[in-house]
Amino acid sequence: MESSRDSRGDEPQSHTQQGGQHIEKPAHSCPEGHNQVIQDPLAHFLAIPWTAKLLADPAAFDIAVVDRRLLPTGDKQFIRSVLNSPTTVRACVVFWMRMPTTPPAQGAPPISKSRALLQGGGPQNGEDPEKPFLLFNALVDLGEDLCGYRGVLHGGLTAVLLDETMCSVSDSLGCEFSGNFYN
């Protein structure tokens, strides 16, 4: 797998996954005291075959363990406190993926319904060579207390997960929310 440095120039570290394969793990990918239930979320997802395959894909980069420590401002308490237990959200890892340059195998589902993405991007589809289309991914280990009905994820939590994933995108791009809607 190709290794990448983050914008701060952190050196990648090797992380062994099940089966002896190696995945590059950026030094910043696991903040000290990240406050997730599972002590090493990256190792946890590397032990699951289908998520390990995603993380080991050469198109994946900037793999990071989400920092779920409580904020001094009290912001994001719902995610960082209420939904942070052995029976709710146990682990979360996020990463970026470059768009595939080859069409999916026959019978494989398309990666998106977006015609621009499916056609491979490019200037004709609104992609800027300086800012190529990327996919942002979040792997989340969910517990049984998040079910509306036994074995069925509560629909409201689906919206929360989408909202928090979008916040993670913003955080990873260094965007800052001022909270000042009205002035």
Automatic annotation (TrEMBL):
InterPro entries reported for this sequence: HotDog_dom_sf (IPR029069), PTE-AB_protein (IPR052061)
Coiled coil stretches, renumbered: none
Compositional bias ranges of the Basic and acidic residues kind: 1-13
Annotated segments matching region Disordered: 1-35
Protein name in the entry: Thioesterase domain-containing protein
Species per Swiss-Prot/TrEMBL record: Thermothielavioides terrestris (strain ATCC 38088 / NRRL 8126) (Thielavia terrestris)
